[in-house]
């Protein structure tokens, strides 16, 4: 739906996806791209985002669309605090601040997590992506899009027929 806006002739657009260091190939199945039968939906969806970014670059760079992925690391938000009781976070937070000295994946504060966008411009990491699987994934996404559009079209047609029938019997 956004393609006409993002791929305008003479303009450059940039998509930035938020991924995770938890995005693992082992959690993703090309036969189950919607992860209906999987056990790690977060990891699978983040890996899918990584592949989508690569596929978009392959297919849309010539149209001025450039896609990137950032991994801001562990950011302490209300979502994070909701995973475990608050007293637990209070106990381990000093340890997390110490770990932060040695690793860049413990950004901890939302501000530092947002700074990952600045790092995007300076630090690059190789992702565990396969070009061939990325192409298959992109094709499956396009098939899924066509199926969804077809279903919506059929439902709209059914609804219009129903409305027409109701108006005829009134």
From TrEMBL:
<keyword id="KW-1133">Transmembrane helix</keyword>
<feature type="transmembrane region" description="Helical">
    <location>
        <begin position="79"/>
        <end position="99"/>
    </location>
</feature>
<keyword id="KW-0812">Transmembrane</keyword>
<keyword id="KW-0472">Membrane</keyword>
<dbReference type="InterPro" id="IPR036291">
    <property type="entry name" value="NAD(P)-bd_dom_sf"/>
</dbReference>
<protein>
    <recommendedName>
        <fullName>3-keto-steroid reductase</fullName>
    </recommendedName>
</protein>
<dbReference type="InterPro" id="IPR052834">
    <property type="entry name" value="3KSR/17beta-HSD"/>
</dbReference>
């Amino acid at each position: 739906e956004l393609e006409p806006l993002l791929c305008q002739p003479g303009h450059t657009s940039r998509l930035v996806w938020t991924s995770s260091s938890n995005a693992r190939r082992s959690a993703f199945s090309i036969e189950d791209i919607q992860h209906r039968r999987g056990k790690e939906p977060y990891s699978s969806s983040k890996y899918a985002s990584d592949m989508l970014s690569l596929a978009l670059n392959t297919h849309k760079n010539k149209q001025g669309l450039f896609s990137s992925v950032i991994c801001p690391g562990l950011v302490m938000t209300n979502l994070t605090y909701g995973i475990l009781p608050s007293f637990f976070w209070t106990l381990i937070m000093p340890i997390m601040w110490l770990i932060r000295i040695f690793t860049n994946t413990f950004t901890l504060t939302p501000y530092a997590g947002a700074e990952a966008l600045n790092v995007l411009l300076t630090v690059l990491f190789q992702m565990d992506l396969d070009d061939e699987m990325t192409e298959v994934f992109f094709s499956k996404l396009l098939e899924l899009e066509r199926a969804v559009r077809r279903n919506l079209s059929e439902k709209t047609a059914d609804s219009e027929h129903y409305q027409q029938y109701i108006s005829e019997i009134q």
